[in-house]
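User: Hi! Is it possible to get a structure for several chains at once, not just one? Here's what I have:
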Amino acid sequence: MRAGTGKQSGGMTTGSATTQNVVEVRGLRKRYRDVEAVRGIDFDIRRGETFALLGPNGAGKSTTIEILEGYRDRTAGEVRVLGIDPHHGDLPWKARLGIVLQSTGESGTATVREQLRHFAGLYPNPRDVEETIAAVGLEQKANTRIAKLSGGQKRRVDVALGIIGRPELLFLDEPTTGFDPEARRQFWKLIRSLRDEGTSILLTTHYLDEAQQLADRGGIIAGGELVAIGAIDELGGADARVPIVRWLENGVQRQERTTEPGALVARLAAAGEPERLEVIRPSLEDIYLELVGETATIPTLEGNLA
Ligand SMILES: Nc1ncnc2c1ncn2[C@@H]1O[C@H](COP(=O)(O)OP(=O)(O)OP(=O)(O)O)[C@@H](O)[C@H]1O
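Assistant: Yes, the chains can be modeled jointly so their relative placement is included. Here is the combined structure:
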């Protein structure tokens, strides 16, 4: 964990009534045979926030999420989700979660409306079926068999099924893969409205603009370790955000990182108009790539590269 990344500290609280954290993870480890997929991570998700778990392929995100959802056992560490150890999560606990898995499992002969009605019947306080269909923009497809939908439309059904039970905590594992740009923006609106209703959300995404648009806080996981955690606009710390001034001098590109780009530009301009002058503020994507670049591969227990 690098300096300024805001490592969580302290013990775990118990019982959802006593904590404002919907997720608490301490020292979480998961080993698959010779691969240590998750190597001792700590983080909390506060009630009502949207938290983005970011990281390259194979970083350990899905493993972590599946442990939180109660689908996968952990090797070590402590986990509480809505105050309960997922390993002991019962049906009433599961009904408080909404889960949108990474790959779409929905096909079959049921129509969109039939499938949603069926799932709504499984929850104690479901969302209205028609409202949910409208929320994911599938009004025109309500009577279409799910097997006949496009990939992006099936993904919307996944999201609809994830929210039909009015979850307190919604897991969204790469929810907008396969969405066209307009559908993605519609989806962002839906997520914001869920957040406004008080739903806590754990989002994984490879789209950093999506994380920036939706998340309050985020964590970057690489090689099974959390390399940064914090407010989404502060990930990586202040140093990573120092602007870069770039210009051309006698045909040679020069650049300088400075916290006072205005002063540098003024100095350069005093000697004549600088050629191809630009001031660049590192984006979340630049910062992310710098952070994961160092640890993007997972070492096996033998220390070899997987
Ligand atoms: N069931 C399994 N058995 C063995 N190894 C596994 C299993 N599931 C995942 N792994 C390994 O654990 C590591 C972490 O995988 P995981 O699926 O958690 O990554 P991820 O961050 O979700 O990746 P992606 O962005 O591609 O979904 C990878 O090296 C993967 O090969």
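Confidence is low (pLDDT under 50) at residues 1-10, 14-18, 295-306. Residues 243-281 form one domain.

User: Great, thank you!
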